[in-house]
């Protein structure tokens, strides 16, 4: 059963950072991977950024962030699949590519690894958008489907040394998703379509179908 944390984001980030540092030291390896999963709008990206910051500044551990969103299929591919309107659903990501990259990162055999980064303003992934050095000791990966139990996503969880899931009440999730798209200047009608027909159903699927993590964080409010 996962340990539960019901606190503010900063306190939750401190709890995760402490657990990651303890796991890193106990395993005695040169690198470990931490996976933070949750629905879109759950706050997992902000949480992951704070964990990396705390590990670096307070724990003296070299840490880096690796978002899974860089493995979105390109819009041209989604158009061919007839799935452009459902971008963000589990079948619109390159699960195998992400798994191979996680394995490569964990093996830590290369002096530097370039990873893709999703540019939300352009809605595309930029190849080589971030470099992760061999000296990096903890990599924090965040994404919606890191703990998904369906094939082939279920092959990801064993790669991680510590897993976290971010829980958020549905009403809070809906409000955050609406605010996110409002920031891009979309009409109320388009926001409602994106949230109710795509983002929120994806979020509910993630919350109901993810494997049990090592640690749960309640990020409501």
Outline of this structure?
The chain has helices spanning 9-27, 44-57, 75-81, 95-107, 170-182, 188-209, and strands spanning 3-6, 32-38, 63-67, 112-119, 124-133, 138-143, 162-167, 215-218. By secondary structure, the protein is of the alpha/beta class. One of its GO terms (molecular function) is hydrolase activity.
Description:
This protein is α/β, with parallel strands linked by helices. The protein has one domain (3-218): P-loop containing nucleotide triphosphate hydrolases (Rossmann fold, 3-Layer(aba) Sandwich). It has six helices and eight strands. The chain has helices at 9-27, 44-57, 75-81, 95-107, 170-182, 188-209, and strands at 3-6, 32-38, 63-67, 112-119, 124-133, 138-143, 162-167, 215-218. A six-stranded parallel beta sheet has the order 1-8-7-2-6-3. Strands 4-5 form a two-stranded antiparallel sheet. Helix 1 (9-27) crosses helix 2 and helix 5 packs across helix 6 (188-209). The longest helix has 22 residues, at 188-209. The radius of gyration is 17 Å and the shape is globular. The two termini are 24 Å apart.
Q: Give the termini distance in whole angstroms.
A: 24 Å
- Give the spatial strand order of the biggest sheet: 1-8-7-2-6-3
Could you name the CATH homologous superfamily? P-loop containing nucleotide triphosphate hydrolases
CATH architecture: 3-Layer(aba) Sandwich
H and E string: EHEHEHHEEEEHHE
CATH topology: Rossmann fold
Work out the radius of gyration: 17 Å
Protein name: Nucleoside triphosphate hydrolase
InterPro entries: P-loop_NTPase (IPR027417), PRK/URK (IPR006083)
Keywords: Hydrolase
Domain Phosphoribulokinase/uridine kinase: 34-178
